[in-house]
Amino acid sequence: MVEGRVAMASAVQADLVDRLGRARVLVADEARKACGLEVGAAGPLAVVRPANIEHVEHIVKVGRLRHAVVVPRGRFPVSQPEEVRDVVVLDVGALQRPPAVDIGRRTVTVGVGVELGQIDRVARQARLCLRSMPGFDDGEKLGALLARGTPGELGLGEGSLLGEVVSAHVVTGGGRVLAVGAADMLAQTPWLGEGFANPLGQLLGSEGRLAILCEVTLRLHPAPTAAWCSVALPPTREALLGAASLTRALYSARLADTGLVRQTASGQQLDLRLITFRGEADLAQVGTLALELGMKFGITLPPPEAEPRRVRLGLQAGAWPLRAAAQPSLELRLSWPDLPGLYDLTSALYAEVGQVGERTWALGADSVLLRCSFGSVRPELHPLVARSLLLFDAGAAPLGFGSLLRSAGRERMPTSAKVLLTALQRAWDPEGVLSSRVGVL
């Protein structure tokens, strides 16, 4: 058994080096180090860093020829070592096609390994912007967001990043390059062609189990003039619900597009991004109206701080709220009516391990995105994972199922969804190059 694995690993590595070059293929201890594993531990067959879609095509074909599973990853180090054991790890973060903005059609085409902040800065140089982004500038890459089905946080009052995908170039498990989407039908919903079957909606959020996203075209929108406003709140349930009500009122009045509530052991803070499309001179009036609305909900807002001119012109990153050191977390999407129940439930689950819990509530127009940190507790042992079926029952839908929540998610899927995903897997990945290790869901 060991000799067979060594022989297969040597053959896979030789084929990859022959097609992509030694510099793009990490093996042995180099591969373990890239994945955050200890030297000598069981690790991947190789970690490959492709430069373009042709490289991805070659990697998948090698996996198919050598019967090796290919697992795309957008985040390193890996949090679950068993997911990369004895597989070829494809680092989609290396797909760095620079953003190309089409001003006339208001779109940008870019590689999935590019940071979302960089895409937004390039768009702002054309007075355009992405509608939705992560609420913290921590180097999040486009592919990692789309593969997990994360809608983004910044600008959620205007809509989801997932809804802005116009088209994508993907590589299937059979090694074929496909263009999916509605690139020529910009007035249509991205995954609805004019009566033609379009699999883009099913691909988004599949975590690379149906096909590997390589390049994506996104819609852009006119960039507003924005100002940030932050206020500390008491660490109470009532304060959170008051902040949520204020944020919805600001959205309804078209005075803001972002509301973030960050909860820590020391309290909670509301961050609002006020916007106007009538120029910087109108920000003072927007701030006055926001202050009046805040008083109705018992929240005194300070004067907003406008974004610097260099930020508006795309010459530097925005002054987004700061976040503590990145920790493993669970992301949940929920409807507004379920917000109080999810607050109570997650508080109870945190109490089981003696934690207050660090949570971020991204308040959107139609739904809420909740990020729960695991703190110092191993994710697989935390009640948020061990008792995840309670989250489903309370109305939450986890984003980025991963191996921890896949079985729980499958239990909640209707039979029709299971049949559809099985059919898609057979069509795009009949030999299980992408999905034989982790399954469809």
Secondary-structure topology with pairs:
Elements: H1 2-20, E1 25-26, H2 28-34, E2 46-48, H3 53-66, E3 70-73, E4 88-91, E5 100-102, E6 107-111, H4 116-124, E7 128-129, H5 142-148, E8 165-172, E9 177-181, H6 200-203, E10 211-219, E11 221-222, E12 225-233, H7 237-252, E13 256-264, E14 267-276, H8 283-296, E15 305-306, H9 309-312, E16 329-334, H10 339-352, E17 359-363, E18 368-373, H11 383-386, H12 388-393, E19 397-399, H13 402-411, H14 415-428
Parallel strand pairs: 2-4, 3-4
Antiparallel strand pairs: 1-2, 5-6, 6-10, 7-11, 8-9, 8-10, 12-14, 12-15, 13-14, 13-17, 16-18, 16-19, 17-18
Helix pairs in contact: 1-3
Describe the structure.
A hairpin with a 4-residue loop joins strand 5 and strand 6. The strands form four sheets. Strands 15-12-14-13-17-18-16-19 form an eight-stranded antiparallel sheet. A five-stranded antiparallel sheet has the order 5-6-10-8-9. The longest helix is centred in the first third of the chain and has 19 residues, at 2-20. Helices cover 32% and strands 22% of the residues. Helix 1 runs antiparallel to helix 3 (53-66). The chain has four domains: 2-94, Uridine Diphospho-n-acetylenolpyruvylglucosamine Reductase, domain 2, CATH 3.30.43; 100-222, Uridine Diphospho-n-acetylenolpyruvylglucosamine Reductase, domain 3 (2-Layer Sandwich), CATH 3.30.465; 225-312, 2-Layer Sandwich (Alpha-Beta Plaits), CATH 3.30.70.260; 329-400, Alpha-Beta Plaits. It has 441 residues and is α+β, with helices and mostly antiparallel strands.
